[in-house]
Specification:
single chain; two-stranded antiparallel ribbon; five-stranded mixed beta sheet; globular; alpha/beta
C-alpha cells in the first residue's frame, strides 16, 4: 500500500502542502491542468526552489488577480460540480470545504449554507484544497498519516479582526487531533492547512513502518527561527514491516 507521512514539525498550510507534493515529483504543469478543469480565471502559480535553514525545498506562490469574493459553500460546491475533475478528487474536495463551512457556522452561530468564507473563499484557498487532493491522487497515495501539529502562539489578522493563534476555526478543525504548544510567535497551522490534514490523514502520531521511496519539502512564505518547512515522505507499507 502506498502511503504518505506528513511531518509537520513547523506546521502546515495549503501552499506548503502544494510545495511538498511538487517537490515529490508532481509536475507543476499537471497541477495547472487539474486547476484548468475548475474553469477559474485570473490566477498565476509560481514554483521555485528555495533554501530554508540550508534545506532545499519547493515554494509555491499563488497570485489571484480577482477581487476578494465572499463565496458561500454553495458557490464552491457549484464550482466543483461543474468541473471536469475526477470524481474522487471532487468528492474529497467537497468534504474538505463542507467541513470548513460547518466549523465556521458553529463559531459564528449560523448554518453552513449561510456562511460566507471570506479569506477561505478566495481563489488561493480553492487552489490549495483542490491541488492537495489532486496531487495526492497523482502520486498514487492510498493512505495518509501525520505527525502531531505545533500550534504556535501570538495573534493573526483576518477579516474578523485580530484573533489569537491558533485561530478559532483552526482549533475547531483540530479537535481530536494531537497538537502541542510552541514558543514560535507565528500562525504555524492555518485553517486551510488544518482542514486539509484533518480530512486526509487517517492517523496522527509517529511515522508507521514503511519503506520510504521519495521525500519532498514544501516551504512556507516566512522565515522562522526553525526551518519553515513541511516534510512529506511517500513509501510502501507492507504487513511484513
Amino acid at each position: 500500500m502506498r502511503a504518505a507521512y506528513f511531518d509537520c514539525f513547523s506546521g502546515i498550510s495549503g501552499d506548503m502542502v502544494l510545495g511538498a507534493l511538487v517537490d515529490l515529483g508532481w509536475p507543476v504543469k499537471n497541477l495547472e491542468r487539474e486547476l484548468d478543469k475548475l474553469d477559474l480565471f485570473d490566477y498565476q502559480i509560481e514554483a521555485k526552489k528555495v533554501a530554508k535553514r540550508g534545506i532545499l525545498s519547493t515554494q509555491i506562490k499563488i497570485s489571484a488577480r480577482e477581487e476578494k469574493k465572499e463565496r458561500t459553500l454553495e458557490d464552491i460546491l457549484s464550482i466543483l460540480d461543474k468541473s471536469t475533475l475526477e470524481e474522487k478528487v471532487k468528492e474529497r474536495s467537497r468534504a474538505i470545504f463542507t467541513k470548513l463551512a460547518s466549523v465556521e457556522a458553529k463559531i459564528h452561530g449560523k448554518i453552513p449554507q449561510k456562511i460566507h468564507f471570506h479569506e477561505l473563499g478566495g481563489l488561493d484557498t480553492i487552489i490549495d484544497v483542490v491541488g492537495a487532493v489532486a496531487g495526492m491522487n497523482y502520486l498514487g497515495v492510498e493512505k495518509a498519516y501525520s505527525s502531531p501539529l505545533p500550534l504556535g502562539k501570538g495573534f493573526v489578522k483576518c477579516s474578523h479582526g485580530i484573533l489569537p493563534v491558533p485561530a478559532p476555526a483552526t482549533l475547531e478543525l483540530l479537535k481530536e487531533v494531537p497538537v502541542y504548544g510552541s514558543d514560535i510567535e507565528a500562525e504555524l497551522v492555518t485553517p486551510t492547512g488544518a482542514a486539509i490534514i484533518s480530512s486526509l490523514a487517517e492517523n496522527f502520531g509517529e511515522m508507521p513502518p514503511m519503506k520510504i521511496e521519495h521525500i519532498g519539502y514544501g516551504a512556507g512564505q516566512r522565515d522562522l527561527p526553525i526551518s519553515n518547512l513541511l516534510r512529506v515522505s511517500i513509501g510502501v507499507i507492507r504487513k511484513a514491516y
